[in-house]
Amino acid sequence: MGMIVPIQGKTEKECLDILKKLKEDQYFPYLYAVELRYDFLEKRVEKLADFLQGVRNLIGEKKLIFTIRTNRQGGFYPFGKSYFQENILAMESGIPDYIDLEVECGISGRESWKECIAMVKRLGGKVIASYHDFHRTPDLKECEAILERLSSYSPDIVKMAFMPKKQEDVLNLLFAGRRWRDKYPKKELITISMGEMGKLSRLCGDLSGSSHSFVQIFGESAPGQWKIEEYLKLHRALSARKGIALLGFMGSGKSTLAGQLAVMGDLPYFETDAVLEQEFSMSIKEYFQKFGEESFRREESRVLKKMSGREMILSPGGGIVLQEENRSFLKNYFFCVYLKVSPETVLQRLSGAKNLRPLLQDKMNLTDITEMMERRSAFYEETADYILEGDGKSISECLTELQSVLLENAFFPAQV
Predict the structure, then answer these.
(1) How much of the chain, in percent, has pLDDT values that exceed 90?
(2) Is the pTM for the entire model greater than 0.70?
(3) Which of 27, 231, 247, 256 could pair covalently with 226 via S-S, beta carbons 3.0-4.6 A apart?
(4) Could you give the residue ranges of the DSSP H alpha helices within 225-292?
(5) pLDDT of residue 237
(6) What number is the average pLDDT over the span 63-81?
(7) Who wins on pLDDT, 389 or 105?
(8) Quick check: helix, strand or coil at residue 362?
(9) Three-state DSSP class for 227?
(10) What angle do CA 324, 401, 25 make, to 5 degrees?
């Protein structure tokens, strides 16, 4: 899960001072985003755009979430017309990546929120549709209904946070999140059960479907947030997804990048084809000729399952995503990166290659490669946690991007 750190200074200067300290912190590379809690400011002296530019200068390419939490949902900002105006003004600066909006979940009063969301999107921003209750947790049915109402605004991320009164409340929140994520597998979700009772929910993204978690470095913005060093250790220990899998067509750069990434992270590295060839005592081409593709796919699935539960870099064959069982297994046990390149790039890289996959024999032309890649691309994208566009990038640039993504998702060994 991507880690988000809230910044909650009482003045612009205090916020910037916290960010300067944060940038120098050893855990800064592991952060996915910084949330600026604008409602915490007691004095607003600078122009908002100038203040946000100062924030951006400090956090660099980290995602910036602009949040005004109102007094309706545990914040300090009075709800009213100025709430909408400030959020639009922030997005007009072009600096925030996300605007967190605590939208109306009832039947009435939705138009103002729809207009605000539409404006944020027109200005190039993304929207987090959020709902918080610091006093209770609704039952399972109501939790599910709230998630549906939030998602009806078509936001980029749906966020729901509740305070539990009993253990069943925590489980209801997790279960509601899991059902919603299974229904919308490519949409992002944040579910939080607050306080000490719900603290474990922040680590259970694999179970709840939650994409991100709020952590603390200098202080919590809501009860139950983990310190980032605790979160990193516990998340890696508890998560079933311990491996990193690079997916893509032959020639996409899987083997090259996987090998170098393994050295950088001091992790073991495996290629499913190499493992199978060692077990078969023959090449993949020879196995295809002798036993056929169906038998090979069964063996490929068997080896994939054998690889689960360990920290490693895995480079599977390009056709591994053809089986629904394999796609499900990869999503459950690996952080998957799709190395996406064009058919032209594949043809250029494979021209003159000696060890072509059996399915590419006599098909080394742009038409056949394009057709085969089009059949697989939807499966790669379905399985991937992250898509790396490889065309026009050097190996070094791809490695830098990969390392950043893996750090931000707590899937790379901590060098701290």
Answers:
(1) 78
(2) yes
(3) 231
(4) 228-238, 254-265, 272-280, 284-291
(5) 87
(6) 93
(7) 389
(8) coil
(9) strand
(10) 120
Confidence of residue 368 (pLDDT cuts 50, 70, 90): confident
pLDDT (tens digit per residue) in 174-210: 999 999 999 998 899 999 999 999 999 999 998 999 9
> Structure tokens of 139?
């039952």
Which helix (H) or strand (E) segment holds residue 183: the answer is: helix 167-183
Three-class secondary structure assignment of 390-409: CCCCCHHHHHHHHHHHHHHC
Q: Burial-class residue 71 by CB neighbours within 10 Å (0-12, 13-18, 19+).
A: exposed
Say which residue the tokens 């912190």 belong to: 25
At 343, list the tokens. 């058919």
- How far apart (Å, rounded) are the C-alpha atoms in residues 51 and 19? 12
DSSP reduced 3-state for 5: strand
Query: Which of 75, 227, 209 is closest to 151 using CA atoms?
Result: 209
Q: What six digits make up the tokens of 39?
A: 């409602």
Phi and psi dihedrals of 280, rounded to 5? -75, -25
Pair 87, 116: CB distance under 8 Å: yes
Residues 6 or more apart whose Cβ sits within 8 Å of residue 320: 247, 272, 300, 304, 326, 330
Q: Which residue has the tokens 């899937």?
A: 411
The DSSP element (H or E) to which 269 belongs, if any, is strand 269-271
Q: What is the pLDDT, as a whole number, of residue 105?
A: 84
Check residue 248 and give left, alpha or beta (phi > 0: left; psi -120 to 50: alpha).
left
Q: What is the pLDDT of residue 195?
A: 94
Four-residue CA torsion sign, 371, 373, 379, 385: negative
- Collapsing DSSP states into helix, strand and coil, what is residue 162? strand
Lowest mean pLDDT among 78-92, 216-230, 257-271, 298-312: 216-230
* Residue type present at position 60: G
* Contact yes or no for 308/219 (Cβ under 8 A): no
Please return the burial class of 53, using the count of CB atoms within 10 Å of its CB with bins 0-12, 13-18 and 19+.
middle
